Each structure stands twice: as C-alpha cells, then as structure tokens.
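Lab meeting notes turned into a lecture example. A postdoc, R.K., suggested we walk through two folding results consecutively so the class can see how the record format repeats. The first protein's sequence and structure tokens come next.
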Amino acid sequence: MIRILVSGEPLTFNKGCMGMVIGLHQGLKEQFPGPYEITVLSSKFYASDKAMYERYDGIKVDRLPWMAPNIRKRHYAKELLLLAMSLLGFKTPYDKAFQSYDAIVDLNGDSLTEDYGLFQLLRRLLPLQIGIRNRIPVFVCAQTLGPFKSPLGRALARYVLKRVDKLAAREDISSAYCESIGIGNVIRTGDMALLQRSRPVDDAGLRAHLEWMTRHPTIGLSVSSLMKSWAASSMTKSYIECMAEIAEHLTVEHGYHIITIPHVIRPYQDDRSAAREMMSLLSPEARGKVKLLEEDLPSDQLKFLISRCRVLIASRMHAAIAGMTQQVPTICIATGNKFHGLVGKRLKQEDCILDFKRMTYEQIVNECVRKAVMMERNKEQIGRQLEREVHRERLRALENIRFLLQMTRQKEAVSP
C-alpha cells in the first residue's frame, strides 16, 4: 500500500479544494492497480472535513499535528517556530508523524502566495519543509504560484520550492513568474479538479431541485462571498449589485430561471450569504424565478447539479472548471491571473472571461447577459468544443498521477 499525505488547504468548505482531493483519489483509481490511502491534513474544520471525506473509500482525515482544537494566537507563533527550526536543520516534534508516508502532495490551489499575507505563506511552507527535511518526496501539485512580494517571502519561497521533488504549475503565468525570480524547476500540468467526476445526488430535497431545473431553462449563478465587497475604481456599484442586475435581466427580460451555486461555505466566508444578499436586491418577479441552493453538498454532487444548467456564470474558478468539464457553457466573472491562465489560455476560453478589474460595471452586466443568451442558444456546439479542450487538459492532469507514482517507487528503491 502507498500512503499519501495531502497538505495545503483541502477544506471541504471550499468545493474547489475538495474537488482537487477527489480528483487525486479518482485519478489514482484510474492509474494505480494496487491499494493506496490518502490522508488529508485538516486544521480548523476537522469534524466537518472528516464527516465529508470519509464517505470515500481510500480517504481518511487527520488533524494537523501541531493544530490545537481551539486556535489561539500562540498556535500561529508555534508554526513560525517550527518552520524556523526545520529551516535551520533541527528536528521538530512532528517529524515522526510525517515519516510513515510515501509522499506529500500539496494541494494549495492558489495559497502559495503573499496575496493573503506573508504569515499565511509561511504557514503553507511548513509541511513542505518538514517533508524535505525528512527526505519524504514532496509534490507541489498543479497550483497557481506567487506572487511573493516581500524580500523574506520571496527568499523563503525560493529556498523551499527549489528543493521539493516536483513543482507543478497549472498555468503558464505561474511558470513564467517563478522563472523570473529564480525558481526554475517548474513543470506545467493540469488542475487536479479536472479529474473529478460528478456523482448523482442522493437526497430527496436535491432531487426536487433537479426536477425544478428540468421544468425550466436554468442558468447556474456562482456568487462569491470573497468578491461581494469589491468594486473596481471605474464602478459606482458593488459586485453584489452587478450580480443582481445580471440576474434581473436574465429572469425578467429573457425568461430564464436561476439556481445559485455556493462553492465556498466556510463560516466566515459563505457564498450562500452573498447569494441571499443578491436576492434581496431583486424585484418580486425576478425573485420568483431564482432558487437559492442552501445545502452543503460534496464537490462531486455539486458538480452533478451544475451539469444540469443550461449556462453557468461563475465567480469561483473551480465552479467554472466544474461547468466546463461537464460541457456547460461557462462565463467567468474574474479578478485574477488564475482565470486568464487556466480558463483563458489552457482551456482556450478567454472570450468567456469578464474581468472585474478591467471592465466597467455596465460592460460586465451587458456582456454577461448577451453572452449567456447566445451561449444558451448554442449550447451543444459550445459543449463539443469544451469537450475537446477539457480532454486535452485532463491528460495533463493525469501526468500528476504518473509523477506521484514515480516518486513513490523511487522512495521504495532507496528505502533500507
């Protein structure tokens, strides 16, 4: 049996993160005939992660070994101390907990960056450094990397990332950036969520949602709680107002129905609350055609629900990936390079990206409505094109599985 430790941000509250873990699980099932066990390191939401992941045979959940049940500031100081100890060559009390694994797969998505602050970057580097220190194969798997803005962040990221066994970016923008700061060992593979297959819903309430979607031409709307307070300098209204106006036009003027798709539902960042806020801005006529999805679904079941949409409007990148891999025409309301790098360049859907940082409020509303109507009318043709592009990128994602199995075989070869 091979034992794989998943580090990073594999929280089930974030369906994109969960989708990457399920993609790893299903990719191993495809490519590896022998037994394996994936252990997910959970931090703040251990009980929820355990309940959600352990529905899948071959996945277990352990608490991050240095994580206290009730997080305090001293816990974060402890993480910094552990990172310093490992970087300086000292053993840490947690080395032994890592040594029973054949490989560490880091599925951070876009967290290996200073966009969320220097401290969060240092926390993400800690499991990688402990793996390196204990000669466990470390695979930073298909991520968006950087930027590393501060001298300290850049130096530590360069030091750690140059020493992992495999460093894979999911798009070319990350590869070019890493090379520009002296991290030249980057390869390009596909996002692991591309390997996740949808799973039919098994709940009576959700089957009612599906029946409602069958009766009405339905557009999926992924409203992001992360973006809800944002407004570009050229805009006079907020993101939530923008999404509400799009929903108003599509329902009242064009006769579509809408189901909201919550892709992140953690307590302090809940897409459902953003969708409710959008709903409160709609006219009574529009509200009658909008269904709020409130259930906390596993990522593969949420993907099945997305597959029943005529069109998807996504402000979350992995919601967009879930739609495109189901041949659902998808419009991305984007804010970062990861959309342009993966959806735009790799999946060749740049025309479907509306950048919140580059367009005016009116442009986004008008273009989104126009594209949604056009795409719904040409759903089959667009679906065939998506199928071709997704297949090619999915083969790149399977390269991650082959690299991982190669790393575990090499470890076996050098083990005493």
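The second example is placed directly after the first for contrast:
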Amino acid sequence: MILRVLLTAPPFAEADPWGKIIKEQARVCPKQALYLLAAVLEKHGQQVTLIDPLDFESHFRSPDLIAQSVSGIDLLGISIDASTWPRARRLLINLEDLSRRPLTVLGGPHASVLDEYLARTTAVDYLIRGEGEKSFPLLLDFLQAGKDPALVPGITFRRGEELIQTPPGPLLTPEELAELPLPKFELMPKGYYDLLPIETSRGCFYACIFCSIGFQRNWRGIPPGQVADRIGRLVPYLDRTTKKCIFIVDDCFTADHPRLIQIADQLSGLDSRLVFMARITDLVVPGMLEAIARLPVEVMEMGVESGYEEGLQRVGKKLLLEQVKQAGQLLGKSGIRRQARFSFIMGLPWEKKREIFRTLEFAFKLTHRLQSRLIVNFLTVFPGSLIWRKRRDWGIQITEQDYDQERWWLDQDIFRKCHPLLNIPTDLEHILTYIKVLMNYFPDIRHDGFLKWL
C-alpha cells in the first residue's frame, strides 16, 4: 500500500533585536529542503502533497482546518528549526484531539538536536536526525511492510516508556548529492518568494561557536559541471519568484577554490543573478576574487562576526582582522564591492558593552570605505551550536523548554538568559544610541536591517 504523505513546515518569522517582527523575511526564499524531500519521496514511489510555509496558518490555525487538511493523509511530515518549532508544537497538540490522526514525523535541525526532549514531551511518532533523503524513504518502507522501525538508522521514537535512538546512518556522498532530484518547485506558490534556492554543496569546513548546522567539518561538494546543469534546470522556475534571482544556500560555496573557479567559468554567461555566502579567507586567495567577479553577483554575504582580534579568535572563524582589511582592499578593486554584504554579531558570550562598541565601529568603518552593505544582529543561541553545548560555562541559562514558547526570541527573560554580561535594559539603550550615532556619522552606509530596528 502506498502511503499518502503530506509535507509542511511552519513559516519563519524573523525579529530584530528590539522586538519588531520583520514579516517580509518570511517571503525571501522557499524552504529548499521541503521541496527536495517531496521530490525524493515521489521518486521513491510515495504519494506526496505539500503545504508551503506561507500557507501553513491557513491550513492549520484551527481544529476544523486541521481536520480538513489531514483528512485522508497517512503520514504528516513537518520540517522544523528552533524558530518554527513553537507553531509545529501547537499543531501536534491540536492533532491529539482528532479521532483519527496521521502518523507524525519531525525533521530538520531542531528535531536532530533535541530529538530526545521532543520525543518525551510531545506525541510525535518519529523524529529524523540529520539528513532525511535516505532515512525518511526507508522509514516509510518499514512502516508499509510492518517491519521494526528500530532497524532504520538515524531516527528517534518512543515504544511505550522506552526511548529508542537508532545509530546514525552514513552521510550522503558527493555523488549521491549530485544524483538527488531537482526540488519540486512546480508546487511553490507563484509570485510569493523573492529568490529560488539551490544547494551545490552540503556541510562546512569550519566549526564556528555560534553555528548550529549539523555537518561541521564535513563538507561535500557537487562537481562543477553538474552544478551548472542543475542551475540551468532551475531557470524555468524563476518566473515563480519576484526578483528572479537564484540563492545558493551552501554554507561554504567558495571554500573549494578550484571548484569555485570552474563553476565561475561555466556560469559567467548566466542571465540570472546569484545570491550566496563567501568566506573572507577565500577572497584573499590569488585568483579567487577575480573568479567570483565573473559570476552574475546580486549579493555576496560574508560573516566577519567580530570587529576585534580576540573576538575573531574566540568565535572560531580562523580569520584575522588583517585578512578582513585585505579582502576589503581587493573588493574595492573588483567591481563587486557594492554587492558585498558584511555581517556581524553583537553580544557574544564573553562580550560586554565595550566589545560590542568595538565591533560596531569596525563594521561601520569597513562598509563605509567600501560602500557595501552591512547587517548586525544580536547573538541568538541555537541548539546544536558550541555555545549551546557549553552554555553553562558562560552562565547562559536558556533551556530546551524555552524554545517551546511562541516567539521565544522576543522574550526579554530569554534574552537576559542568553546575555548574562549585559545590563538590560540600560546597555541595550546605550548600544542603540551608539548605532544611531554611527548611522548619522556614516549616512551613506546601506545597513540591511538597521532602518527596520529604528
């Protein structure tokens, strides 16, 4: 019997450090993993429907709508991260009231890290840890055949009072990543999203302390020729977006230098614009910035994170301020300096107001000199990051339960738990005042986010 599977994810709502929801962030880019998993399951022979995050509330905001949306569905798969989990949790609670409810499966970063907590505190049936392209179809096969799911790698579930966590399965190889089907973007709502996502590599060479991605120090890249082919096959779907740009969602798109140069050679004539992340340490390698400049760059974001040497070393970027300045000089000559966007973090675990001021001053001076873009945000502690794992060492008191709270990132008590060295609200008021001073002194800076804060 073929299982009827419904895939969905709650919408992502981003907030600025001062508590204002930035609603338009939810429309930047569709959830690539959701549409990819739909394609994987369909290729595997399953009957799949999908509810986009933007349509989540219209299908699940009331018990009657929930009953209608899951009618005839055998299994409901929900992709979650820390920001979207509270809405998914609310849906799971409401599903318990149905006379016949589908099996439920949680996947994504939050399910991967807090699987034990979620399994013990909700009625979810199964959680998938890590990559789901192999384990999810295999779980469906076992359920259809009536086999013991404890033999499926990388899942967590309860059997009575017993919590079962099966051993992790092997990660997808570069060859397997290249063979994945194209995400089913034909199911994407037309005219809603700005960008169309594509994954050309998975994982990261590094392990920055604030980062919660699940594949640190484990990078796998799709061969350059297949990257160009996949991007070419995406082009017809760009008409479903508002800006007709492609967002390369990789954490380390520029890390393999020969690969990047080959991709740049093959995509230099691409009509569509690209948005991607780059590493400062890659830009200073001879020939790299020239290769990147051959790409049709719309936005190239670079995480600097800290504006002083000690902060860079402690954050784990393997980056020096001198390299940031060198990259700035090279960008100034490259012709893409205005497409560059530098991001910084305020409120790292050891930081007081003085360190935050140092980062802000460096950030504004750097982007003023280059006429590039700037984005600065307060640290958010995500489960899975090194900060999360060592939070007690820094006096950070956030708990698993805090992430159950709707819009937990706006809660002042949770903010205090995550920033024990800041005097709140006095220090926040001083930081905001200093940002305003810098904005007045450097009025020409394009500061993505600051205007929304003020």
